[in-house]
């Protein structure tokens, strides 16, 4: 297909307003049936790797906050070591863009043998994961070519928002809210593009980055760090902001970039306090927020939305930051060294 943008990664980042719309086109009856399974299950376990796992972690927060249902997220390659506690009262939610991730498939196979029900969230029709599952939700976002996942991540989040709202029988309300978020994603891209290009030039030779956040935003810190590692080959760490003082603070020195994801939500004040701890030690502080703060050396603006939907916005500037730094360093962000799009080996 003709590529107007310089790379597929950029094309896929820019497609995300449409991704949100397409991913929201799910069968309501199937959502409600799956929601009932979530509420009935004694144990709900997400299994995934990489970016898909960060989507699952946000799903876990959504299930807790909206459905009042506790769930667990287990890395797919570790899942087999927990299989003894999986039985017919367990619901497995397997998240995989390709539906062919070897570790995910192996865990699902063992869970099925133990009688568990399987829900798949995937982008590829008739994939191995789809064929093994009791309920399948497709992302509908078209092929994702770049190795670093962007639009599939937002698609996975959309399905998880719908499932969470389905547990309280508010699917239509969720779809209306998501439609509005799609417009805000476009706004986020436009508002930050020039700032991010300049920031990339300034920071392209840094050796370490730290991404911090709390609550539902924490997984976005990890995802932002992963995108940067994958495409720029810069060491990057994402962590809950409260963990800083348990070790990582000793690594902060003059000029160390610290990205703080702190929308004006229930995590705002505590996250800013942690950001200040890095600032007094010389950190170059990049704030991702709907509110400017004097602590920020650089501010990546996001629109104000209902607090539970911030992850769909805060991830956008971080994807673009990784992309622009990668290009500024002379890398090909579509094909990072040593990495494959679909990890089909253990």
What does this structure look like?
The protein is of the alpha/beta class and 346 residues long. The protein has 2 domains: 169 residues, Rossmann fold (3-Layer(aba) Sandwich), CATH 3.40.50; 141 residues, Rossmann fold. Helices cover 47% and strands 16% of the residues. It contains 12 helices and 10 strands. It has a 5-stranded parallel beta sheet with strand order 2-1-3-4-5, sandwiched between helices. Helix 2 packs antiparallel against helix 9. The longest helix is centred in the middle third of the chain and has 33 residues. The two termini are 32 Å apart. 51% of the residues are buried.
Features:
globular, 47% helix, 5-stranded parallel β-sheet, 10 strands, alpha/beta, Rossmann fold, 2 domains, 346 residues
Secondary structure: elements and pairs:
Layout: H1 8-14, H2 16-23, H3 28-40, E1 43-48, H4 50-67, E2 72-75, H5 76-79, E3 90-96, H6 102-113, E4 117-122, H7 128-132, E5 135-138, H8 151-166, H9 171-203, E6 208-213, H10 218-232, E7 235-240, E8 257-261, H11 268-279, E9 284-289, E10 298-301, H12 311-328
Parallel strand pairs: 1-2, 1-3, 3-4, 4-5, 6-7, 6-8, 8-9, 9-10
Helix pairs in contact: 2-8, 2-9, 3-8, 4-8, 4-10, 8-9, 9-12, 10-12
């Amino acid at each position: 297909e003709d590529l107007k943008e310089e790379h597929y990664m950029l094309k896929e980042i820019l497609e995300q307003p449409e991704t949100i719309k397409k991913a929201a086109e799910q069968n309501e009856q199937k959502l409600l049936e799956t929601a009932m399974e979530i509420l009935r299950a004694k144990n709900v376990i997400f299994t995934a790797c990489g970016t898909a796992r960060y989507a699952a972690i946000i799903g876990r927060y959504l299930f807790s906050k909206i459905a009042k249902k506790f769930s667990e997220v287990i890395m797919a390659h570790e899942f087999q070591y927990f299989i003894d506690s999986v039985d017919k009262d367990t619901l497995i939610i397997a998240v995989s863009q390709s539906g062919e991730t070897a570790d995910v498939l192996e865990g699902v196979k063992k869970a099925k043998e133990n009688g568990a029900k399987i829900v798949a969230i995937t982008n590829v029709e008739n994939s191995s994961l789809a064929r093994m599952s009791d309920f399948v939700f497709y992302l509908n976002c078209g092929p994702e070519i770049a190795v670093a996942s962007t639009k599939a991540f937002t698609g996975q989040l959309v399905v998880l928002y719908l499932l969470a709202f389905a547990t309280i029988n508010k699917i239509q309300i969720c779809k209306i809210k998501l439609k509005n978020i799609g417009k805000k994603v476009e706004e986020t891209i436009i508002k930050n593009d020039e700032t991010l290009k300049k920031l990339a030039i300034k920071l392209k030779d840094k050796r370490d980055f730290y991404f911090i956040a709390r609550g539902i935003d924490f997984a976005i810190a990890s995802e932002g760090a992963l995108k940067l590692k994958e495409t720029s080959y810069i060491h990057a760490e994402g962590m809950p902001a409260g963990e800083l003082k348990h070790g990582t603070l000793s690594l902060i020195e003059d000029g160390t970039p610290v990205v703080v994801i702190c929308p004006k939500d229930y995590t705002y004040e505590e996250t800013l306090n942690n950001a200040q701890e890095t600032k007094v030690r010389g950190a170059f502080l990049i704030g991702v927020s709907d509110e400017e703060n004097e602590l920020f050396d650089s501010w990546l603006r996001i629109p104000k939305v209902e607090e539970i939907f911030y992850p769909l916005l805060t991830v956008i500037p971080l994807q673009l930051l990784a992309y622009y730094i990668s290009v500024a360093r002379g890398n090909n962000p579509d094909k990072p060294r040593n990495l494959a799009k679909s990890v089909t080996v253990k």
